[in-house]
Specification:
With 388 residues, this protein is mainly beta. It is rod-shaped and about 125 Å long. The chain has one helix at 4-27; strands at residues 33-43, 46-50, 55-58, 67-77, 80-90, 98-106, 110-113, 117-119, 131-139, 142-150, 162-171, 176-179, 184-188, 199-209, 213-216, 223-228, 231-233, 242-251, 257-258, 264-266, 275-282, 286-296, 313-325, 331-337, 340-346, 359-369, 372-376, 383-385. It has one helix and 28 strands. Strands 17, 18, 19, 20, 21 and 22 form a six-stranded mixed β-sheet that branches. 6% of the residues lie in helices and 51% in strands.
Length: 388
């Protein structure tokens, strides 16, 4: 049976022992240590550093992506090792970094295209589309760049990688096509971005090889207007140039045919015989009018009935001396002017009626009919009888 006296003695001995232990612990100093790592998080006076092997929390606001040497007293917490820093300094990494090469692409986040997307934790201070070699560290699904340097871009476009081209817009609307001096490149532009034929542009986009080389343009900021294409005389104009000249329309309709080129002309309406002055975009096998006007209407052409030359376009005017219509609907009319005459061929499809003694004016080509000088028109709009 323990008496009150004995219990008091035991408690006193225990108290002395506890106080002695606390005194010993209090006299022992916890040593400081240092940690070198990349800052992968910073906010509200707290940061996280990692060296690829481990991570520590530091009670200080640091810059993400920088390498720091932190000296202080470490301690364990429920979420890992923490340090209350005594000193912090930026330094070079003392641990290996991972290296990757690609193109910088800040679009709805910061990425490095390799051509797969590598998500960067912080932006790089370089233009969009620049090719770089980046050293850094993976953490939490992101790559933290520590340092980087520019590298030479590839000489040829690569699928999924950025590519910058400069050239002239040949087509716009549903399909935008750029000519870079050697080939056509299809542009897929962002909504609301429109380009016009004849404009010189510099475009940055992601390469896709569809039926033709294509560029997927991410932003309207990736399209720079450089002005209009160079103007050159028609005979010296190449694809992508603006051809200039003054020529006669010898065939009209959905497009025009001129007497000075084999290329059809689109984007302008005129009549056979009209003389037009044009500035037109030279495409592969056609011209697109950018600024075209009629400078001499066909009515001002001289009467060419006395200047027969087979295959030549002309305006004729005279009186109808006689008309003959065959069973199949084809007809001919003799048109005279002074001592000159020509046989006018009247196809049934012209749907016109010509009567003797009428005054007639027509626009077309000289040809022959049964070895006689003849004249042929393309449509009823090119023939006028009576008051013309």
């Amino acid at each position: 049976m323990v008496t009150k006296g004995k219990l008091y003695v035991v408690l006193s001995i225990c108290l002395v022992m506890v106080l002695s232990m606390l005194l010993v612990i209090g006299n022992q100093r916890v040593e400081s240590s240092e940690f070198v790592g990349v800052c992968v998080y910073s906010g509200d006076g707290f940061s996280i550093l990692t060296d690829g092997q481990g991570s520590v929390g530091v009670y200080s606001s640091l810059e993400v992506g920088r390498v720091y040497r932190v000296t202080g007293v470490p301690f364990n917490s429920s979420s890992g090792i923490r340090i209350r820093p005594e000193s912090i300094e930026q330094t070079e990494p003392t641990f290996p970094l991972e290296t990757t090469t690609g193109a910088y692409w800040p679009s709805r986040g910061y990425y490095l295209l390799t051509p797969t997307k590598v998500r960067l934790a912080v932006p790089l201070d370089i233009p969009k589309g620049e090719f770089v070699r980046v050293e850094g560290m993976w953490y939490g699904g992101k790559f933290y760049p520590v340092r980087y340097s520019r590298v030479s871009p590839p000489k040829e476009p690569s699928d999924g990688m950025p590519w910058a081209v400069e050239g002239t817009i040949l087509y716009s609307g549903q399909k935008t096509v750029l000519w870079n001096g050697s080939e056509e490149i299809a542009l897929y532009l962002p909504y609301g971005t429109e380009l016009k034929p004849g404009q010189r542009v510099r475009v940055l986009g992601i390469v896709r090889f569809y039926s033709t080389l294509s560029l997927l343009v991410d932003s309207k900021d990736d399209v720079a207007l450089l002005g209009m294409a160079q103007e050159k005389p028609l005979m010296g104009a190449e694809i992508g140039d603006i051809a200039t000249g003054t020529c006669m329309v010898v065939e009209s309709g959905r497009s025009l045919r001129l007497n000075c080129t084999d290329m059809r002309v689109y984007g302008f309406s005129a009549r056979r015989g009209d003389v037009i002055q044009f500035k037109a975009l030279r495409r592969k096998s056609s011209l697109l009018c950018l600024d075209c006007i009629v400078v001499n209407p066909r009515e001002s052409l001289p009467n060419g009935i006395c200047s027969f030359s087979e295959g030549k376009f002309a305006r004729i005017a005279g009186n109808v001396s006689w008309v003959k219509v065959y069973r199949n609907g084809f007809g001919i009319a003799n048109v005279t002017h002074g001592d000159c005459w020509v046989i006018l061929k009247l196809r049934k499809s012209l749907n016109v009626s010509v009567q003797p003694n009428e005054t007639l004016e027509a626009y077309g080509f000289f040809t022959t009919y049964r070895n006689m000088p003849a004249f042929e028109v393309n449509s009823g709009d090119d023939l006028c009888c009576g008051n013309c």
